[in-house]
Amino acid sequence: MKYNRILLKLSGEALMGDRQYGIDPVRLADYAKEIKEVVDQGVQVAIVIGGGNIFRGVAGASNGMDRVQGDHMGMLATVINGLALQSACEDAGLPTRLQTAIQINEVAEPFIRRRAMRHLEKGRVVIFGGGTGNPYFTTDSAAVLRAIEIEADVILKGTRVDGIYTADPEKDKTATKFDYISFDDVLNKGLKVMDTTAFTLSQENELPIIVFDMNTPGNLIKLIKGEAIGTKVQM
Fold first, then answer.
1. pLDDT digits over 3-58, tens only?
2. What is the secondary structure of 9-53 as a DSSP string?
């Protein structure tokens, strides 16, 4: 295997499947199956999931809601998604722990770095909910922060597109895909991979990011085995 410990970043929207909002149980089961294939190969898997399928703090703020209040609602949405993914993983036979950046002791463990790493070493999937626990920070920032803390080898950002393009491939048919790109080139070309805070944190810690299509069955395990899937951002 190319990687020993990965941080998988999933968007909340990815859990909607073909729905307009909420959680699609079929999509959840598909993801759990993909994750199990990777864990069965001895790879340690941590996951950060967004909450955009339920609530977005930024959207709430744009409609007049207090931004901090909205972001706290968004954090709770990521916990709901984490619980759903935990249930799907356990249905697939994967021991899974949900740790949250905000304390909800009846629902999940608090985030404790050493405990998280111990779970990973024992072959358990660890899902990190609640973002960073702070308003004004996205789940992209949470993903990079947790990946650095648990000493992950790479961040795998699962999206609807199969990598990073010169332009949005859903809008511009002439857009071409990068197989590899440097952090500096992403910034210089103004490409959108993650929000700037998260991306800079990843760059400063020399933590590579791979953007790939999570909805194509088999992509995750191929990536882990070292196949050229998606786009790799590296120093």
1. 999 999 999 989 998 888 899 999 999 999 999 999 999 999 999 999 999 987 77
2. EE-TGGGGTTSSSS--HHHHHHHHHHHHHHHTTT-EEEEEE--TT
Angle between the N-to-C axes of helices 113-121 and 139-149, in degrees from 0 to 180, rounded to the nearest 10: 70
Using DSSP, state whether 176 is helix, strand or coil: coil
Task: Give the integer Cα–Cα distance in Å for 146 and 154.
Answer: 11
Torsion of CA 216, 218, 224, 227, to 10 degrees: -80
- CA count, 13 A, side-chain hemisphere, 38: 32
CB neighbours of 143 closer than 8 A, spacing ≥ 6?
7, 9, 48, 155, 157, 194, 198
Taking the CA of residue 109 as centre, how many other CA atoms within 13 Å lie in the half-sphere pointing to its CB? 15
pLDDT at 205: 97
pLDDT at 110: 97
- Coil vs helix vs strand at 195: coil
pLDDT tens digits, one per residue of 127-182? 999 999 999 999 999 999 999 999 999 999 998 889 999 988 888 889 999 999 99
**How many CB atoms sit inside 10 A of residue 133's CB?**
16
Are the C-beta atoms of residues 231 and 48 closer than 8 Å to each other?
no
